Amino acid sequence: GVHVVPWENVITDMSDIMGGVIIERHYYLPSQLKKQSWKNVDDVIASASQKKKEAKIDDKNSAKKTDTITELIEVWEMHGEVPLAMYNEAVAEFNGEEYDWSDDELEFVSCQIIFAPQGVNDDGEMQGVLLQVNEEGPLSDTYRYKARNPQAGRGMGQGIPEEIKEHQRWHNFYKTETARAVAVGGKVLFVTDDGDVVDSIYDDGIDHGTILKVGEGRMFQQANTLPNSIPLYGEISASWAESADKLTNSFAVALGSQEFSDTPFKAQYLQDINSNSQFKQYYEEISEELVQPIVEEWLLPWALKDAAKDNEIYETFSRQELALIDEVIVEKRITDKLVEMSLSKQVATPEMVDTLRQSMKNQLMKEGTKRQVTEIKDFIKKEVIGNVTVHSSDEQRNKRALFESYQTALTLFAPTDPAFLAIRDRILDSMGVSKEELSLYIEEAAQNVGMAQQGQPNPQVDAQQLTQTDKERAVA
To answer: What pLDDT is stored for residue 27 in this prediction?
Structure first.
C-alpha cells in the first residue's frame, strides 16, 4: 500500500534524501512479526524473548541489555544503492555462506535489506539477524519525496520559518523592547524637592485620597515614566508583520477572516486569487512531481488489476452510470438480435430497430439500478490500460477563470447563435454534465414547459415569485 512515512522512524542522508539510502524503522509485536514472510523470524523472536528474561529491573546494566529488546521488536528496512561488496556480504551471511572480499567496492547495486538489530558486541560492532536481502529497482520505486523549496545540499529544502527568520528576529526584538519599556513605565514614581516628605508613601499606611503637605515653594508630583518609544515600536513591529504576511501570502482572505459586509464581491474575489496564487504554484508542483506519479505508477496499476480480477460484476449504479451502461447493453443486444434475424432471413427496418431499442431500454429501466456487466478483463486490457489521464489537482485548468470567460462570451451571442450553443456545450462538458445525463431529464423538462404554457406554476422554480435578491443569489 501507499502510506506516509513518519519522519521520526526514518534515517536518511539529510543533504540528499533521495540520493542516499533510506532506513525505515518498524516495531512489531512477536505475533505481528510471525506473520511476515521473512526468513529467520523465529530466531529473532526467540532471541528477543531470551534477552528480555535475562534483563533485571534492579540491574544497572538492564537498560543497556534491553535497549533493542522490549515488548516491540525493532526491525530496520533499508532501501537504496550500496557498494556491491556490502550487498554480497549480506547475501552470504543471509544464506549462511562464507564471503569472498574480492568484489570491487567501487561498484554499486540498488537493493533492499531487512535487518533486526540486537545491540552491539564487546568490540562495538552492530549485531543482528538478516531477515531479507534482495536486489530491487531505483529508490523512487519505493519512496517519493518532494521538498517545498529545494536547495542544493539540503534535503529538507527551505521552509516557511526560515523564510521569515529575519522578520521573526526583529519582531522578537521590538516585542522585548516594548515589554521592557512597559515594565519601566509601569512603575509608580513621585518627584519632590521637599526633604521633609517621607521616602515612601506606602510604608506609613497612606491610602488613596490622602493629602500630603509640602513646604512653601516646594513641589510634589508623580513622575511620567511611560516611554514615548512604545507607539513607535508597535508601528515597526506591525510593518515587519505585514512584510512577513506578503512573503508567505498569509493575507486575511487566505486565512478565512470575515470581510466587512460592504466589501464588493469582485474585490474580494480578486483578493482571494492574489492571496492564493503562490499556494497554487505549490499545488501544481506537488501534483505533478509527487501525487500524479504515485497515482499513475503505484495506485492505478493496482486498481486496474483489482478491477479485472472478475470478468463479470453485478453492482448498483447511479443514474448517470446507468445511462452509459444501458446504451452499451442495448446496442449489443440489438446487434445480436439483428444477426439472429439475418440468419433466419428476416429483414429489420429502421422503424423496427428503433422500436426494439426503446423496448429494450424500458425493460432495463424496470430492472432497477443493478446491472450485470461482462467482459471486464478484455475491456481493461484493450481500452483502459495506457488510455487513462490522471488529474491529481485542477491546477492545469483554472475553472474559475475559465467559467468567468465563458460567462463573458455568452453575453456576446444570442441564444439562437451557434456560437452560444457551442459555448453552452463547453460549459456543460467542463462541469461533467454528459448528454446521457441530460437525456434523463427530457421528459421532466417537457412537462415543465407544458405546465408553463397552461399558466400553471412550475413545481421546480416559479421565476415570477422570485425577489430580486433571490435572483441574484440564484445567479451567484
So the answer is: 92
- Say yes or no to pLDDT of 287 above 90: no
| N-terminal to C-terminal alpha carbon distance within the chain | 42
Pairing of strands 370-373, 313-316: antiparallel
Q: Exposed, middle or buried by CB within 10 Å (0-12, 13-18, 19+), for 79? A: buried
Handedness of CA 150, 154, 160, 165 (dihedral sign): negative
DSSP single-letter state for residue 381: I
Q: Could you tell me which of 172, 180, 191, 187 has the C-alpha nearest to residue 229?
A: 180
pLDDT digits (tens, 9 = 90+) for 5-52: 999 999 998 888 888 899 999 999 988 999 998 999 998 888 887 777
Structure confidence by residue, pLDDT tens digits, 375-429: 888 877 777 777 777 776 654 456 666 777 788 888 888 888 888 888 888 788 7
Q: Which three cell numbers stand for residue 453?
A: 404554457
Cα angle for residues 450, 456, 457 (degrees, 5° grid) = 110
Neighbour count for residue 41 (Cβ, 10 Å): 20
Instruction: List phi, psi (to 5°) of 102.
Output: -80, -10
Residue type, 305: K
Check the CA dihedral 359-363-369-374 and report its sign. negative
Structure-block grid coordinates of residue 382: 484493450
The 10s digit of each residue's pLDDT in 180-224 is 887 877 777 778 887 776 666 665 566 776 667 777 778 877 777
* Overall average pLDDT of the 52-76 stretch: 63
Contacts by 296-303, CB closer than 8 A, 24 or more apart: 296/388, 296/390, 298/2, 299/2, 300/388, 300/390
471 has pLDDT over 80: no
**Which grid coordinates belong to 318?**
447511479
E strands, 2-47, where? 10-11, 22-28
* Residue 118 in grid coordinates: 540486537
Asked whether the beta carbons of 332 and 361 are under 8 A apart, the reply is no
The residues with which 72 forms a beta bridge, in sequence order, are none
Return all residues near 403 (Cβ < 8 A) that are at least 6 apart: 427, 430
Element (H, E) at 65: helix 62-65
Closest CA to 39 of 97, 99, 120, 95: 95
Contact 189, 222 (CB under 8 A): yes
Cα 249-252-257 angle, rounded to 5 deg = 140
For 231-275, write each residue's pLDDT tens digit: 777 788 888 887 887 777 676 666 666 666 666 666 666 666 666
Sequence-ordered strand ranges (E) for 280-435: 313-316, 370-373
**Burial class of residue 73 in the structure, from the number of CB atoms within 10 Å of its CB (0-12 exposed, 13-18 middle, 19+ buried):** buried
